[in-house]
Amino acid sequence: MRIVLLGSPGSGKGTQASKIVTVFSIPHISTGDMFRENIKNGTPIGLEAKKYIEKGLLVPDDVTLSMIEDRFSESDCTNGFLLDGFPRTLVQAEALEAELEKNEKKLTAVVNLDVSDETIISRMTGRRVCNSCGSTYNLTYNKPKVENTCDYCRGQLFIRDDDKQETVTNRLRVYKNETQPLIDYYKGKDILITINGEQDASDVFNNIRKALETVR
Ligand code: ADP
Ligand code: ADP
Ligand code: ZN
């Protein structure tokens, strides 16, 4: 299965991605996580990406594409993958299609999480992330059992730099201008599945799972 998860920042892509990859046994590829890992390790990609991420802007396509193309060449991607946060521009979507075509492959489905702006703002202000395993929590909707501590690995939770109010507003604007057009792009290819992302995370997941079982 080759799945793309589409949705505005904070729509629940990461939360759903962890559930989907467990059930369908495919690798989880999150360009956001890859950039944060590069930033943490001070790599050239990380230094370049940081300049954009902290302003709430997209990392330029050439940087993003060279990073993801390296990832696709790893052996765990042969039987499928779940892309979380990629593609985010039409240029990236076309590059993805060209990459798949080289191997006579196609996307199985694009899952679009539909969530209102009001919900997004409230979710992002309460988001906390584990500094060790990357698990995501929310102070309102999905609290860790012990304050500031990851349930799975006991890592410390932190607030993402780009979850500040001004940056969130910017990210929503960038999403509308650059990423939202992908909804029509994939609708036109007849592979778009839109899911109501306003429900409890477990209900969102059940709907995604049902939909994916019919297309796999
Ligand atoms: P969210 O979905 O909450 O916005 P991500 O973790 O997916 O967060 O991405 C964080 C940031 O990393 C984005 O705001 C953007 O700056 C950068 N980024 C992630 N994926 C891409 C991409 N495919 N193209 C360009 N920039 C990206
Ligand atoms: P994305 O990867 O799209 O940016 P996340 O999965 O990180 O989104 O979710 C953003 C925030 O909203 C996190 O704090 C997460 O715990 C919370 N969240 C995710 N899904 C739901 C949901 N269905 N209901 C309430 N809160 C949610
Ligand atoms: Zn953890």
3D architecture notes:
With 216 residues, the chain is an alpha/beta fold. The protein has one domain: Rossmann fold, CATH 3.40.50.300. It is 48% helix and 15% strand. It contains 9 helices and 8 strands. The strands form 2 sheets. The chain has a 5-stranded parallel β-sheet, with helices on both faces. It has a 3-stranded antiparallel β-sheet with strand order 6-5-7. A hairpin with a 5-residue loop joins β5 and β6. α1 crosses α9 and α2 packs across α3. The radius of gyration is 17 Å and the shape is globular. It starts with a strand and ends with a helix. The mean pLDDT is 96.
Alpha plus pi helix count: 9
Q: What is the CATH H-level superfamily?
A: P-loop containing nucleotide triphosphate hydrolases
Report the bound ligands by name, code or SMILES. adenosine-5'-diphosphate, zinc ion
Number of domains: 1
Percent of residues in helices comes to 40-55%
